[in-house]
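It is worth pausing here to work through a concrete case rather than discussing structure prediction in the abstract. The textbook approach is simple: state the sequence, then state the predicted structure, then interpret. We follow exactly that order.
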Amino acid sequence: MDKFTYFWSLIIVAGTIFLIGAYKNVFLKIYYIVWVNRRLQEENGAMEPVVTIPELSTVISEAVLQNRIKNRSTFLWSRHSLIFFGFMALFFFDCVYTVFGHYLHHYLHYDYFVNGPGRAFLKFCMELSGAVLLLGLTAGLIHRIIFAEQERTLIDVKLIILLWVVTLSGFLTEALRLANEPNDPFIAYSFIGGNLAPVLQNMHLAGSEAATAVWIFHATVTVAFFAYIPFSKFVHIIVAPIGRSITQNGSYGQMKRERIAGGLL
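Step two, the predicted structure:
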């Protein structure tokens, strides 16, 4: 089995686990909240609409600006912002590279993101966003260790460690690839992997077998991370605006709905 077949086999398994978790921990909760809203309407004869689509202002406030975290602590907000924006940027550029640098090149021979300036741009952006993400995750781990008692219920340390391993192994995977391809014309744009590659060569850690092993490890932990998302606190980035929008209007039943929506926020 080649490594890409292995990767897509993992994707199928992880995708199934992800959908099960999303159904159990997101869709069922939203359905129950909407059901409670409708029952309260029927009992009180109220005409208040059941809100199921988040307002744009709620999405910006909860998911992008993360104002509720900022109101608690500037440090926590900075840490969350580094993780959130680093992850989202890395995910976006990785998707762009997959679509334009792999599939369009393979099927339509579109080379701009493979042999042209687009590849340099994507490599630099992916390394930069990965560095931002790694910085935020490291700050989160250090803070979790120092304030273990206070942060125990607020931080999913398993998720942070898993994503930290994913990010670090990604840099190591790129460094090993460059160590075996030192003449890569875009090596200068991999400002982390490119500088790490000669270190691995000097330590005699580079080689095709090592590169393949690290690639497989990185692919495995990456897929495991995505499968774990709906079972972790990370899912609040996605569903917090939904949960907040469901409880943002009306006065009757407010406490009951907020209590149910607590799992989403």
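Step three, interpretation. The chain has eleven helices and no strands. The radius of gyration is 22 Å.
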